[in-house]
Design a protein that fits this description.
Blueprint: H1 5-27, H2 32-45, H3 51-71, H4 76-91, H5 96-116, H6 121-130, H7 133-142, H8 145-149, H9 159-181, H10 184-193
C-alpha cells in the first residue's frame, strides 16, 4: 500500500502519540486516559502494518485497554475502543468461529459504552454497525483476503500477478481498518488536546 501524504501525516502523528503515551506510562502507569490514548494510537498504527504485525499491535492495544478498565471500569471511551479492537482482530482471523467470538465481544463492549454514555451517537452507530460485521467478514474471506495478506508461501504464476494480488489485498485491508479504526483518532486527538505535552496538529 502506497502512503498518500495525508496517510503519512497520520502515521507520524500517531507514532508521536504512541511515544508520548509510552513515556507518560513510565511516569504514571495508573493513568487510564493515557492508556486509552496509547491503545488508540496502536490501533491507528496497525493500519499501516502487515497482517501479522497488525495482529500484534491490536493485541497490545487490547491489553492496554483492559489495563485502563481495571483502573476505571466505567471508562466509556476505553470500552468503545476495546470494541473496535476486537472487531479489527476478528476481521484478521481466518477461523470463522473464532472471529464470531471476537465480534460478540465487540458488541458487548460497544453496548457497555452506550450504557455508560447513552447519548453518544458514535457509540450507538458502532453498536449498530458491528451487527453487520459478520456479513462483511464472510464476504471478505470468500475472496481469500487472509490468504493473500498473511504472506503464506504459495507458488505464483509471475511476480506481476503476485504484486497485483498484494496491492489489492493491501488496499482491502486498509478499507477494512478504515471503517472501524479511523474514528479512534477522534478519541486520541481529543486526549492529546487536553494533555500537557503539545501534540503535532491533526492531519488535514
Amino acid at each position: 500500500m502506497d502512503l498518500q501524504p495525508s496517510d503519512f501525516d497520520r502515521l507520524l502523528f500517531f507514532e508521536h502519540a504512541r511515544k508520548n503515551a509510552e513515556a507518560t506510562y513510565a511516569q504514571n502507569p495508573l493513568d487510564a486516559d493515557n492508556l486509552t490514548r496509547w491503545a488508540g494510537a496502536l490501533l491507528e498504527l496497525s493500519q499501516f502494518q502487515s497482517v501479522i504485525e497488525s495482529k500484534k499491535m491490536i493485541l497490545d492495544s487490547i491489553a492496554k485497554l483492559e489495563e485502563a478498565l481495571l483502573i476505571n471500569p466505567k471508562k466509556h471511551d476505553a470500552l468503545w475502543c476495546l470494541g473496535n479492537a476486537y472487531t479489527s482482530h476478528a476481521f484478521l482471523n481466518p477461523n470463522q468461529d473464532e472471529a464470531k467470538s471476537y465480534f460478540d465481544k465487540a458488541s458487548v463492549y460497544f453496548k457497555q459504552a452506550v450504557d455508560e454514555d447513552p447519548g453518544n451517537e458514535l457509540y450507538l452507530k458502532s453498536l449498530e454497525v458491528t451487527a453487520k460485521a459478520p456479513e462483511l467478514y464472510a464476504e471478505i474471506h470468500k475472496h481469500g483476503f487472509v490468504q493473500q495478506t498473511t504472506g503464506a508461501a504459495e507458488p505464483s504464476a509471475s511476480s506481476s500477478t503476485k504484486t497485483s494480488k498484494e496491492t489489492k489485498s493491501s488496499d482491502l485491508k486498509y478499507d477494512i481498518f478504515g471503517w472501524v479504526i479511523l474514528v479512534v483518532g477522534i478519541v486520541a486527538w481529543a486526549g492529546f488536546a487536553k494533555s500537557h505535552i503539545p501534540p503535532t496538529p491533526p492531519p488535514r
